[in-house]
Design a protein that fits this description.
The complex is a heterodimer of chains A (204) and B (197). Chain A has 204 residues and is α+β, with helices and mostly antiparallel strands. Helix content of chain A is 28%, strand content 33%. The longest helix of chain A has 57 residues, at 12-68. Chain B is elongated. With 197 residues, chain B is an alpha+beta fold. Classes of the chains: A alpha+beta (204), B alpha+beta (197).
Amino acid sequence: MIKILNNKGFTTIEVILCFVLVVIITTSLYTTITSFNEKRITEEYKSKIYTYKNLLTKEIQDDILKKGLIAAEAKTTNEDKQTLEVLFSFKDGSKKTLLVEIIQAQSPYHPLGSTTENDYYMIKYGAPGELIEYPLPELGEYVNEDNGLTIKDLSISSATCQTDNNILRLHINLYHPDLGYRYSINIICPINYIDSGSLNSGVI
Amino acid sequence: MTKINKKGFVLAEMLIVTVFLMVIFSILYSNFYPLLAEYEIREEYDDVDSKYEVYWIKKMIEDSTYTEDLSVLTPPDPSVASEPTFIRFNCNKVSTENEKQATCKALVKSLEVANCDDDGNNCQIYITNYQLERFKNTLKEDDTDTFTTEFKSYINTLPDFKTPSLNDAKYRVITVFNHTMANSETYTSYATIEVRK
């Protein structure tokens, strides 16, 4: 059986036009997909930090709201590592301790970087002597080629606790090069708040 | 003998189809992209910090020493246009005691509530009915600078709360915060919580 085949082919202009169109579409798709991929990675980081921040905030705020904070004593040290220790006292007589430990290796990202040790960040919270560790989520790290120190992408840049005017202002500043300080942990509440009576159910 | 269609498409047809497809994809993309921006804005709505912070405003309003009469927000005939749909929270209404007012002033300042003056007045704290329908209508009709576009967007994302509160709450407090981060940059967040009174 003889088949009659179309042997016309394309003209040069048609081929060039098609080629140009394909290049334009591929380029725009590539840049779009790349930007979406970067966004996906950033969102993944955000999600991890959010989960961490929400968990820790809830642990502390639950105690403050349910037990009632009557005092908060803060002390800081700056020896082998920077630490912030806050002792919370509650109306039911119980106490909880929050301990923030910071060791910052030299890094252009860390304004306070001054040690010769690897980055180390830890937050501990719980009853005195029974502290539970809340390690920061792992969001990547790199080794500084100059000194061989490990620098973590997610760091605690500073931790402060003030109790002026009977208001607790606790700020644990989490820093990430892509996300800045937006996802820091902030606990602000009155100390020894006297409730003169309400229908409040304590529901948030 | 099989006959094969040798016609194919002409260049003009191909171009028209390609342009048509590109237009469709552009429309899809331009509709899809704002959703991402919307998602980013919504990060500032009822985030964990603001939610715990607005709780303390709620506590002060629920306190029996709070002197403002909230019953004006639940009039017998809510359809009357002149009935107020919101009340601004002021620290001088928290109590007649100076100590409680001082705590309120220090608290709203520490919580970084937007627009507060040194006396804890003019804060962007709005007490409304638990159901938000009337307040939403007020915002729709508002042509002054009282409410920002961002605030209106936040309120529009909230449900009307037509179903009565499980905690029998009649009112709602809505607060705007202007937070300053460690690097002195600021961001605005919004939060709401029901009020039992």
